[in-house]
Amino acid sequence: MRHPRTARSTGGGRVNVGDELPPLQVHITRDQLIRYAGASLDFNRIHWNERFATAVGLPDVIAHGMLTMALAGRMVTDWLGDPARLVDFSTRFTRPVVVPDTEEGALVELTGKVGALTEDGLARVDLVVTFEGKTVLGKPQALVRPA
């Protein structure tokens, strides 16, 4: 099967294999972890209690994996301009994001680019999500429908 090299973009232009999404940098703070715990109902103490986190072998409090995944999804939907164009999203959680008890918190950096286009007009977006220079999500990919 031959794969096309371009598809329609959200703005009516073309999306090409290799096109890069605008990068995103997010500081995750302990305050945000508490708010996310309330929204997700995930009150596991590793996400807010330093003493508990270190007692179970973690270096400190860690961000919710689903929060990190949501940041990657946000990057894609911001680029699309319409969250309904996100068809599928998958990843593996490979490394925790350690969130220090500071004003800055943990800096998570996200990049992405169009990795492939399908015959039916979908685009696969390959993402890279890092903390302290190391990837924290394994093979995060979004399948999207450009306009």
Can you give a write-up of this model?
There is one protein chain. By secondary structure, this protein is an alpha+beta fold. It has helices at residues 30-40, 50-55, 65-80; strands at residues 6-8, 14-16, 24-28, 86-93, 106-117, 123-131, 134-135, 137-144. It has a single domain, classed as Thiol Ester Dehydrase, Chain A (Roll), CATH 3.10.129.10. 22% of the residues lie in helices and 34% in strands. Strands 3, 4, 5, 6, 7 and 8 form a six-stranded antiparallel β-sheet that branches. Strands 1-2 form a two-stranded antiparallel ribbon. The radius of gyration is 17 Å and the shape is elongated.
Q: Please tell me the total number of domains.
A: 1
Query: Looking at the structure, what is the overall shape?
Result: elongated
CATH second-level architecture: Roll
CATH superfamily: Hotdog Thioesterase
Class of secondary structure makeup: alpha+beta
Helix content class: 10-25%
Mean pLDDT: 92
Radius of gyration: 17 Å
Beta-strand segment tally: 8
The poorly predicted ranges are 1-11
Number of helices: 3
- What characterizes the major β-sheet? 6 strands, antiparallel
What percent strand?
25-35%
- Ends: how far apart? 23 Å
Give the helices and strands as they follow along the chain. EEEHHHEEEEE
Q: Which CATH C-level class is it?
A: Alpha Beta
CATH topology: Thiol Ester Dehydrase, Chain A
Could you outline the blueprint of secondary structure elements for this entry?
Elements: E1 6-8, E2 14-16, E3 24-28, H1 30-40, H2 50-55, H3 65-80, E4 86-93, E5 106-117, E6 123-131, E7 134-135, E8 137-144
